[in-house]
Structures are given as C-alpha cells and as structure tokens.
Amino acid sequence: MQNVYLAPETDEDDLYSGYNDYNPTYDTEELENDTAFQQAVRTSHGRRPLSKTSLASSMGRPMTGAVQDGVARPMTAVRAAGFTRAALRGSAFDPLGQSRGPAPPLEAKPEDSPEEKIKQLEREVNELVEESCIANSCGDLKLALERAKDAGRKERVLVRQREQVTTPENINLDLTYSVLFNLASQYSANEMYTEALNTYQVIVKNKMFSNAGILKVNMGNIYLKQRNYSKAIKFYRMALDQVPSVHKDMRIKIMQNIGITFIQAGQYSDAINSFEHIMSMAPNLKAGYNLTICYFAVGDREKMKKAFQKLLAVPLEIDEDDKYISPSDDPYTNLVTEAIKNDHLRQMERERKAMAEKYIKAAAKLIAPVIDTSFALGYDWCVEVVKASQYVELADDLEINKAMTYLRQRDFNQAVETLKMLEKKDSRVKSSAATNLSALYFLENELAQASSYADLAVNSDRYSPAALTNKGNTVFASGDYEKAAEFYKEALRNDSSCTEALYNMGLTYKKLNRLDEALDCFLKLHAILRNSAQVLYQIANIYELMEDPNQAIEWLTQMISIVPTDAKALSKLGELYDGVGDKAQAFQYYYESYRYFPSNIEVIEWLGAYYIDTQLYEKAIPYFERASLIQPTQVKWQLMVASCFRRSGNYQKALDTYKDIHRKFPENVECLRFLVRFCTDIGLKEAQEYATKLKRLEKMKERREQRIKSGRDGGGGSRGRREGSAGSDSGQNCSASSKSERLSAKLRALPGTNDPYESSSNKEIDASYVDPLGPQVERPKTAARKRSEEDDFADEELGGDLLPE
C-alpha cells in the first residue's frame, strides 16, 4: 500500500464545471411565456446577429473558448460536431457536406500513354506464362511450348518499349527471369535439349539475375538424359559450388545426383564416396540403398553388410501407430483421432514407410546370395539384422521372399519347408504363407493339400483376395463352378482390382455356358489390362461361341497386334476367315502361322489343300512332304505327294514316289491301285506284278471281313469276352486320360488357359513362370479334337477328299 496515493479532497477550481447546469433556454414547455421568443417569432428580431454578451447571457454558461474570470474555457469537439463559423453566420446545418453535390470523377489517364501500354504488355506476358504452366501440368506439352515462345516474344517487345520510356534500371528483371526459365523448362519437357541448354545459358550468364547458378542443376539433368555423364557431373559440381552451405538439403540432393551419375557411368568408387558423404551428413533411404548397390557392384561383402545396416539405421521420422488409437471415451478426442487417421500427413507417412520397406527388401534380395557361402545363410543374416532394427515386421516378409527365391531356383521342397515354418506366425504372415502353399500344391495338382491350405489362408484373413481366389481355384478344379463363382465374387468385393479373381470368374461363367456374364467379366478386365493377350483371346473365343465371327475376328486382330508371333492365334484367325469365306485372308494368316510354327499338322493340311484348290500342285508338294516327316507312319501324306507329282505332269517322279510308298507300306491297297493304273497306262511290265499283288490283298481283305462278320454272328460268350476285354482297355484308356489331364493341369493353371490360375500378387507370391514355347492362349477343344493326331486320319479314305478324281 505504500505505493498507493489517494487524490486530495481539497476544493480546487474545476475547469469542466457548469456542464450539468440546466439552461432554461431549452425548456420548450415555457416557450409561450418566453417574451423574447415570442417577439422574435412575430418580428425579424430573431434574424439579428447575436452578440457575444447576449448569447452568453441567454445560455447561462460561458461559450466554448470564452474567457471568464481570467481563465479560458477548454476547446472541446468544435469541428467534429459540425459546429463551424458558417453556422454562426446563419448557414444551414450540413455536417456531411451534402449541399456541395457529388465528388467530381477522377481524371482518366489516356489509354495510349506509354505507361499504360507497358502495364498491358506485362499483364499479357504473365497470362501467357500461366497458360504455359497450366498446359504443361495437363500434359499438353506442345501447347505449353507455344505459349512459352509467345511469352518470350512479347517480353522482348516489352523490354524495348520500357528502354525507350524509362531508364534501364527500371526493367522488370523478375518477369524476364520467369519467362526465360519457363521457356527453358518447356524446351526440356519437349526433349528439345539443345534449345533448353541455350536458354539456360542466357540466364546463367546474366549477372543481373541473382542465384541463377542453381539452374546449372537443370543443365546437368539434361546432360544426364543425353548420357553425357562427364558434362553432367561438371555442371552438378558447379551448382554445388554456388549453393551456400546453409542450404544443406539442396547440397545433399545435388550430391545424390552426382552419385547416381557416377553409377550410370560405371564409376562405382566415385559413387561410393558421394553416398558415403551423404550418409555421414544426412542419411536417407535412397542414399543407403544406392550405397548398397555400389558395394554389390564392386563385390565387397563386408562393406555390403555395413551399407545394409546403415540403410536399416535411417530414421523414418514418422509417428507410431499408437497415436491413431483413441485411449479414452472422450467424443472430442475420438473425433480428432478419426480425422487424422487418413489425412494427408498420415498418407505421407504410409508412403514413406512403404518406400523404406521396398528398399530394404530389394537390398536383401540383392546381397543375400553373395554375402555368405550360400544363399540360405545370406538370407538368414539379413533376417537377423532386420529383426534387431526398427523394421521387425519385415523379417517375416523376407522369409516369404526367401521361399519365392527357392521357387525361382526350382527348389520346391525348400520353398514348401520355408513357408510351413511361417504357419505359426501372426495372422497376416500365416495367411500369406498358406496362400502361397495353396498355389504351389494347386500347380502340382494335389488338390486336397491345396484346398486345406486355402481354407487356412481364408480363416487367417477372410478379407484377403488372394486367399479367396485360391480357394475358388480348388473348388473350380473339383467341378463346383457355382461355388467357385461365389468365392471369386467375394474376392472382388474385398478388392475390386483383383484381376485374377475377375479373370477366373469369367472362365467359370464360360464353363456354366453363361456367355453374356462371361463376356461382361472379360470386357471389364480389358478396361483394366488393355494389352493382355489372354483377355483379348477370351473375348474373341466367347464371340465365336456366340456365333459372331466378325466380332471374334476383330478382337483376335487386336490380339495379333500385341503378340504378332503367336502361331496358334494366327491359325485361329485363319480358321475364322475361312469360315466366313475369305480364302485370301485365311491363307495369309495360315501362312504366317506356318512361318512361326511349321509343325502344326492342321495348318500344313489347310495350306496344301489351298494350293490344290487353286491347282498349284507344285507349291502343295513341300507342305505334304513336311507333313510326312512329322508323321512318317501316316501313308496319306506320301500319297498326296505322289498325287501332286502326277497332277503336275511329272509322271516319272510320281511313279518313283508310288514305288517308294509300296516298299514302305506293302499292304496298302490304294497305293497298289495307283501303281497298276500307272504302269498299265505307260505300258510297263511291272503292271501284271502289281495287279497280282492287288488281287491277293483284296482276297485277304474279303476273307478278313468274312471272319469278322462270322464272329459277329457267333455266340454271346465270345461277345461277352470281347466286351470284357474292351472294358479293360477302356479302363486303361481312362487311366491314361486322367494322367494326361494331370500333366496338362500345370499348363491350365497358367494365365490364358481354360482353367483358373493362382493368385500371384507381389504381396503373396513373387514367382514368375515362363513357357518356353512363347505366349500361349486357350484353344477350345471339341469332341473331334480329343483324339490323337495320328487317329485323326485313320478313318479317312486315302486320297479321297483332298484329291478328287
């Protein structure tokens, strides 16, 4: 309280006293009794100028600014209240000045003045630069370059006009810089590297542009694209020298560019120096991964291990997942947690974590086979190091990758053992391992094991599309197509982008003869996989089954544009053209198919028949000769060769061919008939010999037919024995057939065949299966094609259909 001072209560003169005094002048109720007021109303007394003394006496208190008792009354709010001297002189009360009328309009500047022209040009240049940038972001690079050139031309006009009006110091350097920089960027985007470099040189050499040296990084990037590595490194280093040390991040990025350039140039030692410097100053994932690659290239095992450990030690700088779990029941906290669970920052954290996992797994795959004496030991070391780092959950993924590597090496037993070790892990790893095991057993046609592991995968993770797809595959193989379709539908509900499930569902609908639904599935798949030959073939095949050959031809033509060397697709296209009566197009595609695969009997037969129909017998001979080489036990092809010689007029060659056929097939009646006719027409002595052989063969044939006929008329016992024998043979054939089906199951499991294939996404199975015959597509098998190729011609009359007499 010692610092508190109270105001004294003494009576001092108050300068603001008298304001609360009542002035009877403003009492309107007493105006009738006011003599002075009444007189002023009746006469012009009220218009007389008032004197200070009369005003003061009438108001009852001193005027503002009046001197009373030697003290001036304070001046307060004179002009703010609108009281002016004009009011005292009898002017009207107008505090807002409305009596003066509206303000005069601003003086308009002439539009043709130099300053206005310069400002207008500046606006146009800025608009052109903005249009160029927008066009570039939309992907229209040509329009972006045109707008950039227009901006450059107008900017030069602007500079000339400004030099005529003002001094050179007033030139807008920022505008000039932005125009030149945008033009150089658009040149680079359009791969006009020489023009881009020239434009960058203009900027860099101009000393008036501050911090233009950083653009040498862009010049280095252009030289890198041109594979001029020495110049790229030179410009990167020049840019590095001009970047201040305070800009640490920029210097690290330039150093990383230098290291990558050294890698592409094959100078791994210099690249190692750059990445080692980065890892010592500011370690990051890309630098650690590139450093591991460099040590792998030089073959230094110990340094590879250290680089891998440095990669694992790079901090992710992301929050833990516990942050996104609400620990309390507070609704406000729960709302905040829900809001940040999938915001942009959370998505960036996921992308960063996914990138780290990608680099670590790729580095482990790379160095595991070479850092130790065996691949397994190297992978085990990588797994142990990962378990001791912040990426503990990646250890199980590396184990799955280890199993996939065994698959690539065709070591299926080791792959199965590795996957079985993961069955007791958490649900995610268990589901992945069971999915891959199911796929492996499905390929080996062990459907019971495949179904068991598919059930395990589905129970571990019901929302895994790969597990559901594999379960659908096992059900499909057992023949329950309706149930298989339900599994594929559930997989698509969980992941609409699961192309394996969509493809297999189309095959299922085709098996059920629901062609419209199958076509809808494959058309949806075609919208996702635009260049898939298997999908295009399936669409064409469905149109063929729907008896729409024109649509089938159109889709097969699209397929041929993707796989122009597929012999089966070419022959199928030739077959469709032949069906619609276009022999010329059919010949073209059959001939192309023959060029790529000259061992297809059906194609060879069609080409030979085509030349016979066109009476070009000499050209048909090579095709039938090739057919006789492919099927040497089939006499038909050699008879066709002899017939072509005979029809072309080369009788001696035809006779020699018939004699050769008779030596190989002495009991062939058709060959003897031609020899008898031929020798008789020419007058050879061998005619009687061949006629005798022909009669003997015909008698043998008659006796054989009589024995067969008498056997049919015999007792039922022999018939029963024959039926039993036939049943036994049938059983053997069924067994052989089932064996062949098991052997072909592996091919049917691959994409593009008639049966579903296993799901092989990157997260589940990373094995690639390559068919040595090239791209294969499904060919619908009819009942006639179920027999072997040799039996196809066993029941036909030799020389009958192809060579009518």
Automatic annotation (TrEMBL):
Stretches with biased composition (Basic and acidic residues): 701-712, 778-789
Pfam families named in the record: TPR_11, TPR_12, TPR_6, TPR_8
Compositionally biased tracts (Acidic residues): 790-805
Q: Does Nucleotidyltransferase show up as a keyword for this record?
A: no
Cell location:
Cell projection, Cilium, Flagellum; Cytoplasm, Cytoskeleton, Cilium basal body; Cytoplasm, Cytoskeleton, Microtubule organizing center, Centrosome, Centriole
Instruction: Quote the protein name from its UniProt record.
Output: Intraflagellar transport protein 88 homolog
Q: What biological function has been recorded for the protein in this entry?
A: Positively regulates primary cilium biogenesis. Also involved in autophagy since it is required for trafficking of ATG16L and the expansion of the autophagic compartment.
Q: Which organism is it from?
A: Carlito syrichta
| Primary location class | other
What GO terms describe the biological role, i.e. biological process, of this protein? inner ear receptor cell stereocilium organization; intraciliary transport; kidney development; non-motile cilium assembly; regulation of cilium assembly
Superkingdom assignment: Eukaryota
Q: Is Cytoplasm among the key words of this record?
A: yes
